[in-house]
Amino acid sequence: MRLLIVEDEPKTGAYLRKGLNESGFVADLAATGLDGLDMALELDYELVVLDVMLPGMDGWTLLRQLRASKDTPVLLLTARDEVSDRVKGLELGADDYLVKPFDFSELVARIKTIMRRGKARNVDTVQLADLEIDVFKRKVTRAGRRIELTAKEFALLHLLAKRPGEVHSRAMIASQLWDMNFDSDTNVVDVAIRRLRAKIDDPFEKKLVHTMRGMGYLMEERD
């Protein structure tokens, strides 16, 4: 099981790498956010242990850019225990959040829990009602009919469909798909949703993309 640690503090990074290697993992170490992002994108890691406070590129930015193209599980490490930070991390796509200082045994336990969940969700296809998404071939069909999507439309569809019933805020969608901070005056997310609906929902009787007023968007099958 190959892991990536992104930690700029040398002693902490060495401690984590040594401990995880001794716990049966194969752990690589990156000391900057840029190096961590390059390694996470180029290599196939089963999980990334990511420090939030990093030089050059912080953990939030790294996570946002990673989520634009890969679904590698991420465990965030931070010295801050603010609820807003935990919510931000989870909205950006983190799988768990651990506050420093922490007990090493808890870190290992959380990693194993995430990886068990990851094996269950890391599938080649996503199915919702009569909609099928082939993640690796980037092929979408509904009721047997092929649907052509742009790269952004596919990323938006996959983001919503892989977690059916979960509301995605406009801010989270904007940060993950456009690498931008959401501005209430910006309608880029709403426009993207309308275009996706025109292809995924409008030609069909049953609608899958739904709006939660004041909250965001979700996909689910409704009677």
Automatic annotation (TrEMBL):
InterPro entries: CheY-like_superfamily (IPR011006), CusR-like (IPR006291), OmpR/PhoB-type_DNA-bd (IPR001867), Sig_transdc_resp-reg_receiver (IPR001789), WalR-like (IPR039420), WH-like_DNA-bd_sf (IPR036388). It comes from the Bacteria. Keywords: Cadmium, DNA-binding, Phosphoprotein, Transcription, Transcription regulation, Two-component regulatory system. The keyword Phosphoprotein applies. One of its GO terms (molecular function) is transcription cis-regulatory region binding. Residues 123-221 form the OmpR/PhoB-type domain. CDD domains: REC_OmpR_CusR-like, trans_reg_C. Gene3D superfamilies: 3.40.50.2300, 6.10.250.690, Winged helix-like DNA-binding domain superfamily/Winged helix DNA-binding domain (1.10.10.10). Residues 123-221 bind DNA. The modification 4-aspartylphosphate is found at D51. This is Response regulator. It comes from Massilia horti.
